[in-house]
């Protein structure tokens, strides 16, 4: 009986030694892998998000309509209000709340569309 316990102890100590050696060697392997980025990782880092273009303020409706034929509407506008009545768009406006806010002074009827075509 003592022999089997002794053999089991030897096996456990051998396994423990191999496990300890593997744990000691593992950080070295991980550090080497982390130091050399893979091709896929370098491709991900190379992707740069597109820069936002600055919001343009136009001088008048003629200048705005050269770029945006139907005017500029804030988000959520579904119709053109003419004399208090809902009318369909003649030309669909470009929808951008930020651009609308920058050119809000040109929305004379306050319906949420600057420089709309009537």
Automatic annotation (TrEMBL):
Keywords: Signal. Residues 57-116 form the Excalibur calcium-binding domain. This is Excalibur calcium-binding domain-containing protein. It comes from Microbacterium gawkjiense. Residues 1-34 form the signal peptide. SMART domains: Excalibur. The keyword DNA-binding does not apply. Coiled coil: none annotated. Pfam families: Excalibur.
């Amino acid at each position: 009986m003592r022999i089997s316990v002794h053999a089991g102890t030897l096996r456990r100590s051998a396994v423990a030694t191999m496990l300890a050696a593997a744990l000691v060697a593992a950080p070295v392997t991980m550090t080497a892998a982390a130091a050399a980025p893979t091709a896929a990782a370098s491709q991900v880092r190379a992707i740069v998000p597109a820069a936002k273009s600055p919001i343009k303020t136009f001088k008048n409706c003629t200048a705005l309509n050269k770029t945006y034929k139907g005017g500029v509407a804030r988000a959520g506008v579904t119709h053109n209000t003419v004399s208090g009545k809902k009318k369909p768009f003649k030309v669909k406006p470009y929808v951008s709340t930020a651009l609308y806010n920058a050119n809000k002074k040109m929305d004379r009827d306050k319906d949420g569309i600057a420089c709309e075509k009537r």
